[in-house]
Amino acid sequence: MNTKPRFSGLEWLRFSLGVFVMIYHTAPNYPQFDRVPWLKDIASMGLYATSTFFVLSGFLLAHVYFNQGRMREPARSFWLKRFSNLYPIHIVALGASILALLLMHQLSIPPDGPGATPRFVIYDTHDISGQTNPELYRHYMSNKELGLNALLQLFMLQAWNPLYLTFNAPLWSLSALFFFYLVFPYAASKLLRIEHIKLAIAVLCLIYLLPPLYVIFHAFWGIPWTGLLQRFPPFRLPEFLCGILCYSLFRREQERGYRLSDLRGMMLWVFVLCCFIAGTWLYTQRPERIWYPLLHNGLLLPSQLALVYLCAWLPDPNSAWLQRNLPRLGASSLSIFALHVPLFYLWMTFEPLLRSMASDRHGNWQDWVSSAGGTVLSLTGYAAFIVLTVWICLHFQEQFVAKVRRVMLRHVL
Questions:
Q1: Distance in angstroms (rounded) separating the CA atoms of residues 273 and 2
Q2: What pTM did the predictor assign?
């Protein structure tokens, strides 16, 4: 049984990253954010949250599964435990997304309902034509493509498709995590023995920058390079590996009795904040295409490592309620990553419809559908959606995923 202490600061971070990714994917549907440009720009930095989550995953797995450089259990046991936690979330989110899209199409509430289908995808590109002629990259999968991508999803291999994202876009991150889990027992046993940890982190950061530099040098802005940089698991692996090294550095400092000083902590927080602000400005305000691949794949990694490191040093909260519920919120982060898409499909369909019905109680179905098509989603409703999604994902994790995981492990361990 694992008796290692939990990091309250990392539970906060894990939960916050899940919520940030949810806002990143859903906020563009609210034109009200256009009135506050800086807030819209911050909400567009989902790339920062996902990369930080991969770093955090490496950190936490090294903390939980390794003692004195040795893994606490066989690799097979580790893989089965991680798979049994990941796959129930993945398969429910996948099925829910497909059903939600079919329901949207059946109800046909404009503007998104009539064209909603699991077949629709958008080719990933940063070529100029993607902005000037976006219709060129909109695609409806053939039966063969649909079957192939369904198989990739069922085996959690969708991140290996560099052309486009299917069914539920954020599920690629679970596919990448699955690959990281396969690598972890071998990589962590080597990385945790490294003496010159900071040098190893610097080398990995440089290695991580090689693919985007290659893309920039050859001006490969289109297909398939955009998708490869975004989600190809071997290209994203340095983030996870750096998280393992970050834990190794943190653990050694703890063993030597080191405590983070207020001055150093403040300097690191300023560094993280400045990197995030600069990255946001470069990503949203600068026209040069070089910034997306650099920011997405490596340039912000030092600040993400610093953020995880700082949160690991945060003290436990005094509140007994927070001490009890922070682990629950942190554990729900993957469910938030995966389920917010189908939940938002339903929300963006039914909120306008219900508001239309409430404003015209004596109307008919066609009147309500027509009126709903011109109804702008409300920010009050958006706040309710975020809270409701967190509540659903929290209970989904505890009442479904945890129970399915126990059943699966009972049969295979």
A1: 34
A2: 0.95
